[in-house]
């Protein structure tokens, strides 16, 4: 599949400026579109014309898909979601406390914010900014999630996966800051964790995923994406409902269902999931599997689903 154009969700203060400038240098200004709002000089003329003047996002996206290889903006995923396959969606995430403090410093310097840091933390509009930006897409379906604290590694991984040669740049930093990281009082840390619980969950997940994707690419194994889908509370521990796919292959993934270490069934993840189709995940939505535990499964037994090619555990449960 063609990876381009890429849709870069530029979350504020996550090293996104360095990445987007490096991407523009690589792809060329003619093939790089920006959407930083109606009042921004950086926003592409076609986006200004169609998105902000004509109020016709479809035509804006049509121009992007025809002419661009890279779209970047302080926008949330749903804005352009219908026009991009999930593999083409990319972003960076950052330790939430560092992101919050950096955003506060930026807002104070450039946007006239007069409140205290504690005031800033308590404002809902500044809370969970990273997870808000990605709302609407299954986290593991996102094509690439870079880690700000591991920026050089992230660029190397990005280039390996997408076959690009984007350079490492280091721009738009707060030069008044003495060290590389901010420090916090216990009260500040507690408040940040309370107000940004979803961002902490996202960041922890992204770190685990980063290591997994790095390992798979180094071993030249398929980059498997997977996750759980909703089941009713009464069905938990009694059945599974999962999705999994690999963007680099058209065939459905296969997996073993293992109970207490013994393979009990082979399954193919090829059931239709409307949500996966709507969100352009892969295979037009045919990436799911539902499985009701048979009566032979006993309470307390451990259930695992292991993808065959990589031997990755893509689901774990306990029979209840």
TrEMBL record:
It comes from the Bacteria. Gene3D superfamilies: P-loop containing nucleotide triphosphate hydrolases (3.40.50.300). InterPro entries: Golvesin-related_Golgi, P-loop_NTPase. SUPFAM superfamilies: P-loop containing nucleoside triphosphate hydrolases. This is Sulfotransferase family protein. It comes from Alteromonas portus.
